[in-house]
Write a structure and sequence with these properties.
The strands form two sheets. Strands 7-6-5-8-9 form a five-stranded parallel β-sheet. A four-stranded parallel β-sheet has the order 2-1-3-4, with helices on both faces. It contains ten helices and nine strands. About 35% of the residues lie in helices and about 15% in strands. With about 325 residues, it is α/β, with parallel strands linked by helices. The longest helix is centred in the last third of the chain and has 19 residues.
């Protein structure tokens, strides 16, 4: 039996996955990039429950389900659900479990997806929980890094901007522990990487350097520059947000000293942290990165529903 060959799985955090399991899921994503249209999930129902706004994540999960032949139910606004009447998250999850085979859920409360996975009789996929984790974004980030660098090992990865509330960078740190990265945390003091993640780096032997400056010299050794949006919705003090929202902006003229292999990633949406003059630069990869989300999320659905890499490679339901 190969790795991950079990009946069903939750996908709540990427922190529990081994190096072998991460590379296995990347191999699944590669297969879906070759042939994204299949009927592996024909007859299945996918529920997308988005208690917090989303564009790319929700649409790519729903597209992934549709391209695999599943039907999609759910909501993109909690205001149209019985949560407005006081229904608990537990009751919502149990009710939807009557109708669906798997639930992809985004929630504004940290730990909500873990809780849902403990009460649900069907697999739960965490599509983002507060400022905590975003494991499906992390898998597409890992796939994007692997595609552009040819490896996940021994890379210099610069995380820039909102490192305090940025759940995407928190997930990336935990996933990369298997691959000997050197992280560079580039943030103002107000948005610095939380102490718990620096302690995580110490505990797992992950090298990191902290910077408050952001210029062409600082980023000259980067293999990956991972820009993040300063998230207005995470701030209780809007004055603090105004102070830091424009602190780091990547312009094209800052790329003069960068390495040829360097790629710029961003989980999107961007506000103004990447200037539009960067879009046409060969280092820019954030639009392609978003496209990789389809293949990563197809892999996640199959992983959660017990479909293996061998099943995908032997699949005869490919639709051209």
């Amino acid at each position: 039996m190969t790795v991950l060959e079990m009946e069903k799985h939750n996908f709540v955090t990427i922190a529990d996955l081994s190096r072998e399991e991460i590379l296995y899921l990347i191999s699944m994503a590669q297969e879906f990039e070759k042939h994204p249209n299949r009927e592996l999930l024909k007859g299945r129902v996918v529920a997308t429950l988005f208690f917090e706004p989303s564009t790319r994540t929700r649409l790519s999960f729903e597209t992934a389900a549709n391209r695999l032949g599943a039907r999609v139910i759910g909501f993109s606004d909690a205001k149209v659900t019985s949560a407005t009447k006081g229904e608990t998250l537990k009751d919502t999850i149990l009710m939807v479990s009557n109708y669906a085979d798997v639930i992809a859920m985004r929630h504004y409360i940290e730990g909500a997806a873990q809780y849902a996975s403990e009460v649900a009789p069907i697999p739960i996929i965490n599509a983002g929980d507060g400022a905590h984790m975003h494991p499906s974004q992390c898998l597409l980030d890992l796939y994007s890094i692997y595609k552009t660098q040819g490896t996940l090992d021994n890379l210099n990865i610069y995380l820039v901007g909102d490192l305090k509330y940025g759940r995407t960078v928190h997930s990336l740190i935990t996933a990369m522990r298997h691959f000997n990265p050197t992280f560079h945390f580039v943030a103002p003091d107000e948005l610095a990487m939380p102490q718990e993640y620096k302690m995580y780096c110490h505990h797992h032997g992950i090298k990191y350097v902290e910077h408050t400056e952001f210029n062409e010299q600082v980023i000259s050794d980067a293999d990956i520059i991972y820009m993040t949006r300063v998230q207005k919705e995470r701030f209780s003090d809007l004055m603090e947000y105004e102070r830091v929202k424009n602190v780091y902006i990547l312009h094209r003229d800052m790329l003069k000293l960068t390495k040829p292999n360097m790629k710029i990633l961003h989980p999107l949406p961007r506000v103004n942290e990447i200037a539009y003059d960067v879009d046409d630069d060969p280092h820019a990869y954030y639009i392609q990165q978003a496209g990789n989300g389809l293949y990563a999320r197809e892999a996640i659905f199959c992983h959660c529903l017990g479909i293996t890499l061998d099943d995908i490679r032997n699949d005869k339901t490919i639709i051209n």
